[in-house]
Specification:
Layout: H1 11-18, H2 38-49, H3 62-70, H4 76-88, H5 95-104, H6 107-117, H7 120-132, E1 137-140, H8 147-156, E2 173-179, E3 190-196, H9 203-214, E4 218-223, E5 228-229, E6 232-233, H10 235-243, E7 255-260, H11 265-282, E8 287-292, H12 298-315, H13 329-332, H14 342-350, H15 363-376, H16 383-387, H17 392-408, H18 416-427, H19 430-461, H20 466-482, H21 486-498, H22 507-512, H23 516-528, E9 533-536, H24 546-556, E10 563-570, H25 577-585, E11 600-609, E12 612-621, H26 638-649, E13 652-657, H27 662-672, H28 675-678, E14 687-692, H29 703-718, E15 737-739, E16 744-748, E17 762-766, H30 769-786, H31 800-817, H32 826-841, H33 846-862, H34 869-897, H35 904-932, H36 934-959, H37 965-971, H38 974-999, H39 1003-1023, H40 1032-1044, H41 1062-1067, E18 1068-1072, H42 1084-1114, H43 1122-1146, E19 1150-1154, H44 1158-1203, H45 1207-1244, H46 1252-1278
Parallel strand pairs: 4-7, 7-8, 10-12, 10-13, 13-14, 14-15
Antiparallel strand pairs: 1-2, 2-3, 5-6, 9-11, 11-12, 16-17, 18-19
Helix pairs in contact: 4-5, 6-8, 15-17, 15-21, 19-20, 23-24, 24-31, 25-30, 26-27, 26-31, 27-29, 32-35, 33-34, 33-35, 34-35, 36-38, 36-44, 38-44, 39-43, 39-44, 42-43, 42-44, 45-46
InterPro entries: G_VLIG_dom, P-loop_NTPase
GO molecular function: GTP binding
Pfam family, one: URGCP_GTPase
Length: about 1300
C-alpha cells in the first residue's frame, strides 16, 4: 500500500503543527485526574490556535494522551475530536488546519508524532503500554531526517506487536504487532510486521526488512498491475524482492505467498510465470504459493491461507524467537548501546559455578534474614523454638556470628553480577536500570519455566501421593528461591551499605565502590521515573530498610505543601489488582496471569486535583489465597496480615474482588477484630472502598451483600470489649462501592481456521468499556481520600518520614502479635469463643472436684510418715486412672453440649483444651505432691548414703571375719580405708546427681520452663475475656494488654526498667487532652508529667515483681506452673491499669496511654527466672552441705571400725551410731508428732483422763523409736 504526502500538508508541517519541534518534558510520576473529553481538548489547544503561526497545537494534551494510552484507549480518540471540531466548525479561523488533519492524517500518524515526543527515559514504558493495549507500534523509516523517529522506536522495541491504515506517515514505514498466545497455548505468540513501501524507499527500510524477513516463517506479498511495466516486473517490485533475506533463521523453509489483486485471469497466468521465475532463482529452499484474489471467492481463499499458515507454524522448528537474537546494530549504529549483553549476563552468573539458591548471590540479604529471624525469638515463640531452646546469650552469639559473616563479605571478592549492577548504579541512567531488570527477568524466568514444567509433569503424570506432594513442594520452594528480580539486587546493596567496616566505610563501598549518596541517588531516579519498589520481600516478609527508604522518599517528596495520601489494595490472587492500579495511576506494577506480585510493592505518584497538590503512595499487595503460602515459611495467615496492614497504614483500602462474598466479609471481620488492641499512637481511620470487578449488574444488585458486610462488621466491633462503635476504627459507606466491567474481553482466535476452532482457542484483548470507567473511579477514590476525617490530623500522614516509620512499626506488630489471625471467618471466631467459655466452665465443676480429690490423697499419703517409692507409685497410678476417667467423662459431656453445627476443628480444639486442662492440673498436683514430700525425699538421700556405707562395712567384716585382729589391721591401712570409702562414696555422689536431676532444672531448661510457662499463660490470657469488672475501660485495657504482650522464644534479660530503656519509655505516651483548649503550647509541663508517670509505673511494676519473687524465695520454689504465671500477669495488668487510671482521673489536662506491655512482662519473667535460679542454687548448696557433713561423719565412723575390728570397738561405734540415728529420727519426726498431737488434742482433750502428752509419747513416740532401734540393731547384728 502506498501513500503520499499532500502539498497542502507536508510531513514537516505535520510534525511541527502537532507537537512542535522542541522536546516535551514528562514527569513519570505525575498523572492527570480529568477525563480527556472534547471540551477539555478544545480548552487545551485553544491558546495555541490563537497564535499567528501555530505550532505544537497538541503539546498541552500530551499528559492526557499518556493517560488514555495507559488505560488502553487508542489515540483514535484524538482523531474523533478533530472530526467533531470540523463538523461543528468550532474554530473558523483555523478550520483549514483541522480539515487537512482530517483529510490526510490517521490515528497512526498522530501516534508516530506522539512517540517522537515521548522522553527517552519514559519510552520503554510507553511502548510496553501500547503492547498491553494491543495498539500497533508504528516504525517510520522515511528516506529523510525523519527516519530517526523510526530508529528511536526500533532501538527501544523489546516486545513486538496489525494495523492496516494509510496516512501521511504511511510510506516507508513498518507496523510491528504482537498477538498473544491462545488461551490453551496451542498456538504460540505471533509477531507480524506489515511493511509500507514508497517509490523511493530508504536504505534503512531495506536493511530492516532484510533482517525481519530472515526470521519470518511466512511471507505474504501483495501484487497488482502497478507492479508491472507492460509484461515485465518494474524496478520497484524487483527491489522489494531483493530486500527479502535469502538466509532463513535456523535453516527452516519459509512459505512465500504471492497474492494478485485486481488482475484478470488471462493476465494472471502471464504475470505468474514472471514472478515464479524470479522467486525460484532467488529462493531455492523456500516454498512458493501464488494465488489470484477473486472477490466472490475471497473468504474461501483466506480460510485456506489461515489453515496453511497455521500448519506451517506448527511444523516449523525454533518457533520461539527471542527478540534479542534479531540484531539491528548495523542499522542503528551508535544509537544502540547495550552495556551488558544477554550472554555476558549469563556468564556473570556462571562464574559462581553451580548456582543453587539466592544466597549464592545475595549473601548479605541471607545473613540479614537469619539475623531478623533470631531477633524474632525475642518476640514470638514457634514450635521449633520449643523443641530446640536457645538461651538469650546463645541467640545473641548467633546474631553476632552472622553479623561477623556480613562484615567478612567485605574481605571477599566482588561478585561479578553484582559488579555489573554496580556499574548500572554508577551510570545513573534509568534505561540501563530497566535493561538490567529485563535481563534479570529473562535469565531467571528460563529456570522458572523448567521447574514449572517439572511440576506440571508430576501433577499430570502421577497419582497424588505423599511422595509426589513432597516432590512438588520441593519444586515450588525452588521456584520461590529462583524467582529473582532487580528488587533483590536493590535490597542486597541497601544491606551492604549499612554494614560498616572498622575504617568507617561500608562493605558496599569497599567491594563495589558505591557510597550511600550514590545508592540513594540511583534509587531516587528509579522511583522518579515511575518504577515501583518492593517494600515487603516476598519470601522472608522483611520490610526494606526504613532509614534508607525514608531518606530517599523524603528527598523526592520534599514539598511540604503537598498533602499525602496512602492507598492500598487487597484482593484474591489473579483478580487484576496490579492491572487496576496501573490503569488508575500508571504505576508500572508487574502484571501477568497467575501470581505476579510477591510481598508488597509501592509506587510514588503526584497530581493536581481540585486546586490541591497531592503526593500519593500506592501499595500493591500479593493476592489472597496465594499459591506460595503453603510452600514458604512465615506466611501463615498472610492474607489477613496484609488486610490488617492495609487497614492500619492507609487512608483508602481498596478491596478488589469479583463480588461481595462471604469470604470478603470474613477476611475483613477477622482482620478488623483487633484494630482496637493493635492501634499504634495516631491510628488512622481507613475508608474501605469496594471495587467489584467483571460486574455488569447495576449497583443496586450488590446493595444487600454490602449491607450484610457492614452489619457483620458492626456486630463484630460491638462484641469487642471497650469498643463503642465501628466508626471509631474504619469507614464503610455505601458510596464507596464501585462496579467495573471486565478489563479484558475474550474472543475466538482469528488466526485459527474456522474449521479448527475449539472452545479453548480464545485470546484476550482490552475491553472498550473498562478504561472509560477507570477515570471516574480514579476521581471517586481521590474524593474519598480527601473527605475530612481524623486521617488528616494524624501525624502518620503529615510527611513521608512519619509514614514510613509507622509502616515499619505496624508490620512488626502484626507479624509478632498477629496470632489471632488464624480464624477462618467471624463465625469460626464466635464458635471458638463459645467453645472456650464452655471449656472453662469445667474449671468450676469437674476439674475442681478432680483437684480436691487429688489434694486429699496428697494429704493422706504424706501423713503416713517417711517417704518411700511405693507412695509415689500409688499416687502416680491414682492420677493416671482418675485423669483418664474424668477427662473421658468431661469430653463426652462437652460433645453432648456443643452444637453439631460447629466446625469440626473447633470441637477438636475444645477436646484438646479439656485434655490440656486435666494435664495441667495433673502436673500441678504432682508438683504439690513433690513439694509435700520434698523433705522426706531429701532425708531419703541421707538414708541411702548411710545404707551404702553401712552395707560396705558389713560386707568387709563378713569377708574378713576369720582374720585375726593384726591381720585385719594390716590389710586395711589408712590409705586403703580412704580408698575403699571414696570408691563407695562415688556411688553416693551418683545417687546425689540423679536425685538433683529429678528435683531441679539446669539453667537452659529453667529458662525454657519459665518461657513456656509465661507464653502458655499469655495464650490462655488472650483466650479468656476478663469480664469480672463492668468497666468498659478495664475491658479495653485488659484486651490491649493481652494482645500486646509478646510470646518470645527466649528469656529477654531485662534487668532494669530504667527511664533510659527506649522500649519501656516509648511504650508510655502522654498526650494533651484535645478537649482542653486552655493548655499552653509549651511542652515542658507535659514532659515533666510524662517523667512522673514513667517513674510511678516503673516503681509499681518493680514492687509487683518484688512481691512475687520474695514469695518464691521464701518458699524455696524450684519451678512454677503456668497458672501461677497467669495470675501474676493478671496482677501486673491490674496494677498498671490502676496507676494509669489514677493519673487520668487526678487531672484532665493530659491523657496517659500505654502502647506496649512487653517490657514490663519481660522484666517480670526475668525476675521470676532469677528468683527460681537463686532458689535452686540455694537448695542445691544446702543439699551439698548436708551431704558433705554426712560424708565427714560416715568417713570417721568407717575409719574407726576398720582401724579396730575388735568387738568392743564395733559395739562402741554401733551405739554411737544408734544415738545419732535416734537424734536424727527425732528431728525428722518432730513436725509429724506435733501434727498428731495437735489432732489428738482437738479430738480427745475433753475425754482423755490421762495426760495427753504422756499418752501420745507412750502410744506414738516410744513404739516408733523402739521399732527404729530394733531395725538398727538388726543391721548391726548382721554386721
Amino acid at each position: 500500500m502506498n501513500g503520499q504526502e499532500s502539498p497542502d500538508l507536508t510531513v514537516d508541517d505535520f510534525f511541527k503543527l502537532t507537537f512542535g519541534l522542541t522536546p516535551i518534558e514528562l514527569d513519570s510520576t505525575e498523572f492527570v485526574t480529568t477525563e480527556f473529553t472534547k471540551e477539555l481538548f478544545v480548552s487545551l489547544i485553544e491558546s495555541s490556535l490563537k497564535e499567528q503561526n501555530p505550532t505544537g497545537i497538541f503539546r498541552n494534551a500530551f499528559p492526557y494522551l499518556v493517560d488514555i494510552i495507559s488505560r488502553t484507549i487508542p489515540i483514535a480518540r484524538l482523531v474523533n475530536y478533530i472530526q467533531e471540531i470540523n463538523e461543528n466548525n468550532d474554530f473558523d479561523d483555523i478550520y483549514q488546519i483541522f480539515q487537512r488533519f482530517e483529510e490526510f492524517c490517521t490515528s497512526r500518524d498522530f501516534l508516530i508524532a506522539f512517540l517522537d515526543k515521548v522522553p527517552t527515559n519514559s519510552f520503554s514504558k510507553i511502548l510496553n503500554t501500547l503492547v498491553a493495549a494491543n495498539i500497533p507500534i508504528p516504525i517510520y523509516l522515511s528516506n529523510d531526517t525523519h527516519s530517526q523517529k523510526g530508529l528511536k522506536v526500533l532501538s527501544e522495541l523489546r516486545d513486538i506487536i496489525v494495523a492496516h491504515c494509510s496516512g501521511i506517515c504511511n510510506p516507508n514505514s513498518i507496523d510491528i504487532s504482537f498477538h498473544a498466545a491462545s488461551e490453551n497455548h496451542s498456538r504460540p505468540p505471533l509477531a507480524i510486521s506489515e511493511i509500507y513501501y514508497d517509490e523511493s524507499s530508504s536504505s534503512t527500510l531495506s536493511d530492516t526488512v532484510r533482517i525481519l524477513t530472515k526470521f519470518a516463517f511466512y511471507i505474504v506479498m501483495h501484487v497488482s498491475k502497478n507492479d508491472f511495466d507492460g509484461n515485465e516486473l518494474n524496478e520497484q517490485f524487483i527491489s522489494t524482492i531483493n530486500d527479502i533475506s535469502i538466509e532463513c533463521y535456523g535453516g527452516h523453509k519459509r512459505k512465500i505467498l504471492i497474492l494478485f489483486w485486481g488482475i484478470k485471469l488471462q493476465a494472471f497466468k502471464k504475470y505468474k510465470e514472471k514472478i515464479e521465475k524470479l522467486l525460484h532463482e532467488k529462493f531455492i529452499n523456500n516454498e512458493l504459493w501464488i494465488e489470484l484474489v477473486v472477490n466472490n471467492k475471497k473468504n474461501a481463499l483466506f480460510e485456506r491461507i489461515k489453515k496453511d499458515s497455521f500448519h506451517k507454524l506448527k511444523d516449523t522448528e525454533n518457533t520461539w524467537i527471542d527478540w534479542n537474537s534479531i540484531s539491528f546494530s548495523k542499522i542503528l549504529g551508535d544509537s544502540i548501546k547495550n552495556f551488558l549483553s544477554e550472554n555476558d549476563f549469563a556468564l556473570s552468573i556462571a562464574e559462581f559455578g553451580q548456582f543453587i539458591c539466592r544466597a549464592d548471590i545475595f549473601y548479605a540479604s541471607y545473613c540479614e534474614n537469619v539475623i531478623e529471624k533470631l531477633r524474632d525469638k525475642k518476640h514470638i515463640e514457634t514450635l521449633e523454638d520449643s523443641q530446640n531452646y536457645k538461651a538469650e546469650g546463645d541467640v545473641n552469639r548467633d546474631i553476632l556470628n552472622f553479623q561477623k559473616k556480613q562484615k567478612n563479605i567485605g574481605e571477599t571478592r566482588p561478585i561479578s553480577v553484582l559488579m555489573y549492577f554496580a556499574n548500572v548504579i554508577k551510570k545513573n541512567d534509568i534505561k540501563d536500570m530497566r535493561e538490567f531488570a529485563r535481563q534479570t527477568d529473562v535469565y531467571f524466568k528460563d529456570h522458572l519455566v523448567d521447574l514449572a514444567q517439572k511440576d506440571d509433569e508430576i501433577k499430570n503424570k502421577t497419582v497424588e501421593s505423599d511422595q509426589s506432594n513432597i516432590q512438588r513442594k520441593e519444586i515450588k520452594q525452588q521456584i520461590e528461591e529462583l524467582d529473582i528480580t532487580i528488587h533483590d539486587f536493590w535490597r542486597e546493596f541497601v544491606i551492604l551499605s549499612k554494614i560498616m567496616r572498622s575504617d568507617g566505610s561500608s562493605v558496599l563501598k569497599k567491594l563495589y565502590d558505591i557510597d550511600d549518596k550514590q545508592l540513594e541517588k540511583a534509587y531516587s531516579i528509579w522511583i522518579r521515573e515511575g518504577e515501583p519498589i518492593q517494600i515487603l520481600e516476598g519470601v522472608s516478609l522483611r520490610i526494606l530498610n526504613v532509614d534508607f527508604l525514608s531518606s530517599v522518599l523524603s528527598q523526592i517528596m520534599s514539598n511540604s505543601k503537598r498533602q499525602l495520601i496512602v492507598l492500598s489494595i487487597i484482593g484474591p490472587e489473579s483478580s487484576g489488582k496490579s492491572t487496576l492500579l496501573n490503569c488508575l495511576f500508571q504505576c508500572g506494577f508487574s502484571t501477568s496471569a497467575g501470581r505476579c506480585t510477591k510481598g508488597a510493592y509501592m509506587s510514588y505518584r503526584h497530581t493536581f486535583y481540585k486546586e490541591k497538590e497531592l503526593d500519593i503512595l500506592i501499595i500493591d499487595s500479593e493476592g489472597m489465597g496465594s499459591t506460595a503460602a503453603k510452600y514458604i515459611l512465615r506466611r501463615t495467615d498472610f492474607d489477613k496480615k496484609m488486610t490488617l496492614f492495609g487497614l492500619m497504614c492507609s487512608q483508602i483500602l481498596i478491596v478488589n474482588t469479583k463480588g461481595l462474598t462471604r469470604e470478603t466479609s470474613d477476611t475483613l471481620e477477622v482482620s478488623s477484630h483487633h484494630l482496637d488492641a493493635l492501634n499504634y499512637r495516631d491510628f488512622s481511620k481507613p475508608r474501605i472502598c469496594f471495587v467489584l470487578r467483571d460486574m455488569k449488574d447495576a449497583k443496586i444488585a450488590q446493595r444487600p451483600a454490602f449491607l450484610d458486610i457492614r452489619e457483620n462488621l458492626k456486630k463484630m466491633f460491638d462484641e469487642i470489649p471497650g469498643c463503642y462503635d465501628m466508626g471509631d476504627f474504619i469507614i464503610v459507606d455505601e458510596q464507596d462501592v464501585h462496579l467495573l466491567e471486565n478489563a479484558f474481553a475474550c474472543s475466538f482466535d482469528d488466526f485459527y481456521p474456522q474449521s479448527m476452532i475449539t472452545d479453548g482457542e480464545n485470546f484476550h484483548y482490552p475491553a472498550k468499556t473498562f478504561p472509560l470507567k477507570i477515570s471516574k473511579l480514579r476521581k471517586e477514590l481521590i474524593d474519598s481520600a480527601l473527605i475530612p476525617s481524623e486521617n488528616h490530623e494524624s501525624q502518620i500522614f503529615k510527611n513521608v518520614h512519619g509514614f514510613i516509620s509507622h509502616m515499619q512499626a505496624v508490620w512488626e506488630k502484626i507479624d509478632v502479635y498477629g496470632n489471632f489471625l488464624h480464624f477462618k471467618d467471624s463465625k469460626t471466631m464466635k464458635q471458638w469463643n463459645a467453645m472456650k467459655k464452655l471449656v472453662h466452665s469445667y474449671n468450676e465443676t469437674t476439674i475442681k472436684s478432680y483437684k480436691e480429690n487429688g489434694l486429699n490423697l496428697i494429704e493422706k499419703q504424706t501423713s503416713k510418715g517417711p517417704w518411700n517409692e511405693g507412695n509415689d507409685t500409688t499416687f502416680e497410678n491414682y492420677l493416671v486412672q482418675e485423669t483418664e476417667i474424668l477427662c473421658t467423662k468431661t469430653i463426652a459431656d462437652f460433645k453432648e453440649k456443643i452444637s453439631n453445627q460447629y466446625e469440626p476443628h473447633i470441637i477438636d480444639e475444645g477436646e484438646t483444651y479439656i485434655k490440656a486442662a486435666f494435664t495441667t492440673e495433673k502436673r500441678e498436683l504432682k508438683a504439690t505432691y513433690t513439694k509435700s514430700q520434698r523433705q522426706n525425699k531429701e532425708s531419703w538421700l541421707i538414708k541411702l548414703a548411710e545404707m551404702r556405707i553401712g552395707e560396705k562395712v558389713g560386707k568387709i567384716l563378713e569377708e574378713h571375719k576369720d582374720k585375726t585382729f593384726d591381720e585385719f589391721k594390716s590389710n586395711f591401712s589408712e590409705s586403703k580405708r580412704e580408698e575403699l570409702f571414696n570408691k563407695e562414696w562415688e556411688k553416693v555422689e551418683d545417687d546425689k546427681e540423679n536425685f538433683i536431676r529429678t528435683m531441679i532444672m539446669e539453667t537452659n531448661m529453667l529458662e525454657l520452663h519459665v518461657v513456656d510457662s509465661f507464653n502458655q499463660a499469655i495464650e490462655s490470657g488472650r483466650a479468656i475475656s476478663d469480664k469480672e469488672s463492668n468497666s468498659g475501660e478495664r475491658w479495653k485495657f485488659n484486651r490491649a494488654f493481652w494482645c500486646k504482650v509478646s510470646t518470645p522464644a527466649i528469656l529477654n534479660k531485662l534487668k532494669d526498667l530504667n527511664n533510659t530503656d527506649e522500649n519501656f519509655t516509648n511504650s508510655i505516651e502522654v498526650k494533651k487532652n484535645k478537649f482542653k483548649d486552655f493548655i499552653s503550647r509549651d511542652d515542658t509541663e507535659m514532659n515533666a508529667f510524662k517523667s512522673t508517670v514513667i517513674s510511678r509505673i516503673k516503681t509499681k511494676i518493680e514492687n509487683t515483681c518484688e512481691l512475687i519473687c520474695d514469695d518464691l524465695l521464701s518458699r524455696n520454689a524450684l519451678a512454677i506452673e503456668f497458672n501461677q504465671a497467669l495470675g501474676w500477669l493478671k496482677t501486673l495488668c491490674n496494677d498498671i491499669f490502676i496507676v494509669k487510671e489514677e493519673f487520668n482521673n487526678s487531672q484532665d489536662q493530659f491523657k496517659v496511654k500505654i502502647e506496649d506491655f512487653s517490657s514490663a512482662e519481660h522484666y517480670l519473667r526475668f525476675k521470676v527466672f532469677t528468683a527460681l535460679k537463686n532458689s535452686t542454687a540455694k537448695w542445691k548448696a544446702s543439699q551439698q552441705n548436708n551431704l558433705n557433713n554426712l560424708r565427714e561423719s560416715l568417713l570417721k565412723w568407717f575409719d574407726n571400725i576398720l582401724s579396730n575390728s575388735s568387738y568392743e570397738n564395733i559395739s562402741s561405734q554401733f551405739f554411737i551410731y544408734v544415738d545419732k540415728s535416734v537424734e536424727k529420727q527425732l528431728d525428722i519426726q518432730k513436725q509429724y508428732i506435733s501434727d498428731i498431737l495437735e489432732i489428738h488434742l482437738k479430738q480427745n482433750w475433753m475425754n482423755e483422763q490421762r495426760n495427753p502428752t504422756r499418752m501420745l509419747m507412750n502410744k506414738v513416740l516410744v513404739n516408733m523409736m523402739l521399732k527404729k532401734l530394733v531395725n538398727i540393731f538388726m543391721i548391726q547384728y548382721h554386721l
